[in-house]
Amino acid sequence: MDRKSFLKTSLAGAAAFAAASTGLLSCASDKKKTCSVPLNLSFQEGIAPGENLSQKLDFMEELGIVGFEPGGGNLASRVDEIRQALSGRNIKVSAICAGFKGFILSEDPATKALFDTTMREIVRAAGELGSTGVIMVPAFNWQNPCMPHNIHTRDYLCNELHQLGEFALSCGTAVILEPLNRNEAFYMRLVSDAAAICRDSNSKGVRCMGDFWHMQEETSDYAAFMSAGKEYLRHVHIASRGRRIMPGEDGEKDCYIDGFRALKELEYEHFISFECGCEGDRAQAVKTAVDLLRSQWEQA
Ligand code: MG
Fold first, then answer.
1. What's the predicted TM-score (pTM) here?
2. What residues have their beta carbon closer than 5 A to ion ligand 1?
């Protein structure tokens, strides 16, 4: 080997070694990073036992739950009540669950107008509460008359969402699209569908979420969350995966590790919120569910 080709080989080797070392280093630091991603659990209002909001929040606080997801119905009239109930606690409002009337893809002008008015009222209240966003579905299968499922409707939806998203931004919050499953909302079934609509709506006030229950439509929980990425993913719902009850009540089926791994890699900083029923004793089932999710988050 002459000096020139020796140098070439050595340099290539050194470069390869450097690249490999950097890879090792970044692997190690990635692992460290994902280990430190906090699991921010949130409850909808019906999850914790308790006779009133204050008792529910006491129970949540003791369990280390940091988010509260109220329904959007009458939210404007509850802003003071919710603020006072959360004052001095380590619990924030997470997302707001729907609660508007009408729907955005209605062909009936009165129904569409009802959506516009009631949704904006909720969005305004959500902003006052510092919420991450108001959850919405463009159209359930049972909602009629609905615009036809075609490319013009998609353009219309993106345009409408742009305006709504900009309004939400001006209120300090967002609208969050929730993909369901084909039995409930044929229009938007996959997290990636919702994320693409966010992108095409071209407003930072339009974001999306994934619901582990509806995500039975997905081929991979990991890929579903990754497809939305940190940019578009704003909220997550969780339930048991067989009967939509408390996580853990469906036994082996209730594995969330694949999805959690994506959330940790994304350094997802928003909430994972319980939206589910309960079969057993509520207080016990909720505690068991929280332990299960913390353990799976560790494993992810
Ligand atoms: Mg949901």
1. 0.90
2. 211, 237, 275
